Amino acid sequence: MLYDKSPTYPHYDHLPYAKEPWKALYVVWRLLTTIALVPVWALTYSVLPLHRRPRESWSLRQIIHVNFIRRIFKVTEVAGVTWQTRDPTRTPHPRSLRETRFTWVDPLPIPMRTGVVDGDAEFKRVGCYIWPKEEPIEVTKKAKVDSDFEGLCYTLPISISSSNSNEVIPNSSQANDEDGEVPLVGIFMHGGGYCHMSAHESASTSQIPSGLIEKRVLHEIYSVEYRLLQIAPFPAVVQDAAAVYTHVVEQYGFRQNKCKIILIGDSSGGNLVLSLTRWLRDEGHLPLPSGLLLLSPSCDPSHAIPETLSSFSPRPNAHTDYLVDTPEPRALMLRTFLGLKHEKELAFVEEERRLMNFVHSEYVSPCSPIVLKRWGHNVMQDIEGIHTSHIQNLPSAIRLANDPNNVISIPEASSGKSPRFTKLFGDFPKTLVVLGDAERLVREVKSLVVAMEKDGVDVQLHVAPDAVHDILIISKGWWDKKTIRDTWTAVVEWGKKFR
C-alpha cells in the first residue's frame, strides 16, 4: 500500500514531511493531484504526434504508468514512506502463503564471518520464502540423509566438481550417482532500493521468482528476507544473503544431491548478488554459484552522494523512467545504508573519508567511475571524462578518496587468501544481464557488462527496447506484452544452458 503508517525512521526524523500530520497531508495531496493528472496526460498524448511522446512506441497506458509511478516515488524520498515491507523477525501467517513455504535460516556460521561481512551489524537468523510450495521431484527424488551428518554445524559435506560447472557435490561415498537432471536452485534477492519490498510472495518483486518457477527455468527458489537499511546497516544484507547461500549448500550436502545454484537479483537485489558473489570469491569458504541473473542491477549507488564523481554525471533517461533522483533524500538513504547518521554539517574529515571509502568499495559500487578506473576499465557513465575536471574543486579529503589510485581498505580475508584478485570480475560465473534502454541505469549497467567481458566473464546482455527499469515486476497489462514476453524468452533460453 502507498501509505503504511510506519513511524518516522531515525534517518528521516529531520525531514518536515516525514512527521505527522504533514506526512499524511503530503501523501494525500500527492496522490490526489497525481490521479487528477491522469486524464490530462491521456488527453495531451492523444493529441500530440507520436514523436512527441517519451518513446514513440509507448501506448497511452505505458505513458500514464511511468508518469504516475514517478510522481508517487517522490512520496518515498520526501516523506519517508515505504511500501510492501515486512518485519524480518516475524514468521508469516501460513494463510498468507499460497505459492511458497517459509523457513528460518541460522545466522552465518562463526568460522565464515570473515572479509566484508565482518562489520558492525549483528548476525541474525534469516527468513526465506521457498518456491514452489511443495518440493519438486527433481529435488526430492534422490534425497538421502546420512546419520553421520546429523548435528553438523560447519563442516560442509560438499566439494566443487570443477571450476567450470560450479556444481555442489557431497563429499561422501554415499553420494547418489544415479543419472538424472541436476536440480537448478535459485537464490533471489528482491529489489526496492534496500528500503522497500520484501521476499514475501505478495510483493511486486516476487513476480520474478514466481515467473521463473512457472516457466520451469529453475526447480526451486529461495527468496531472502534480508534486513533493509532502516533495520540494519551494511554489511547486514551480505550477512543475510551469505547465510542463505550457506544453508542451501548445506541442505543439498545433507541430501547427498548435486545442485547448481543461480543467484538472481533485480535492481538493488542485483547489487546484493554482485556483493555476495564477490564475497564468495574473495573468501573461498564455499563454491561459487553456477550463474548470475541480473535484472536492471544497481551497479553504482555512489551517484547518490553529492561529493562523488558519479554525481557530476547525471543519469540519463530522466523523462522516460519512473526512477527519480531527489538529491538529499537519496544521499540520506545511502548514508543510512552504510551506517552513517544524518549530520547537518560534517564535523570530522574522517567521517567524510569513511563515507568515501564505503561508497567506493567494490562491494557497494562495483561500477562507480573510481572503482572502474582503479581496475583499469573504461567509464561508460562519462565517456568524455567530464567528471575528472571537477576533482580539483573538491575538499582535499574527498579528493583523495575520489582518486582511483587510492586503494580502499576492506577486511583481510581468512586462511591467507587475498581479497584482491587480478581482475575486478575475475572468476565470476556465467551471467545474464537484462536492461531496459529507457531506464536511468543504462550507463552503469553497460559499464558492468563491458567490464565483465574484459575480465573474461561469460556475460550476455538482453536489452529490452524502450523499456523502463525492472520491467518484469510491472503489473500485467501496464506494459507492452511483446517486450515482456521477449525478455522472459531470453531468460528461459539462458537458463537452458545449465541443463
TrEMBL record:
Where exactly are the transmembrane stretches of this chain?
27-48
One Pfam entry name: Abhydrolase_3
Q: Which PANTHER family does the UniProt record give?
A: AB HYDROLASE SUPERFAMILY PROTEIN C4A8.06C (PTHR48081), ALPHA_BETA HYDROLASE FOLD-3 DOMAIN-CONTAINING PROTEIN-RELATED (PTHR48081:SF8)
The signal peptide here is: none
Organism name = Macrolepiota fuliginosa MF-IS2
Show where the Alpha/beta hydrolase fold-3 domain sits: 187-311
**GO terms, molecular function:** hydrolase activity
Which residue windows are coiled coil? none
InterPro entries per the UniProt record, alphabetical:
AB_hydrolase_3, AB_hydrolase_fold, GDXG_lipolytic_enzyme
Q: Which Gene3D superfamilies does this one have?
A: alpha/beta hydrolase (3.40.50.1820)
Q: What protein am I looking at?
A: Alpha/beta-hydrolase
Q: What UniProt keywords are attached to this protein's entry?
A: Hydrolase, Membrane, Transmembrane, Transmembrane helix
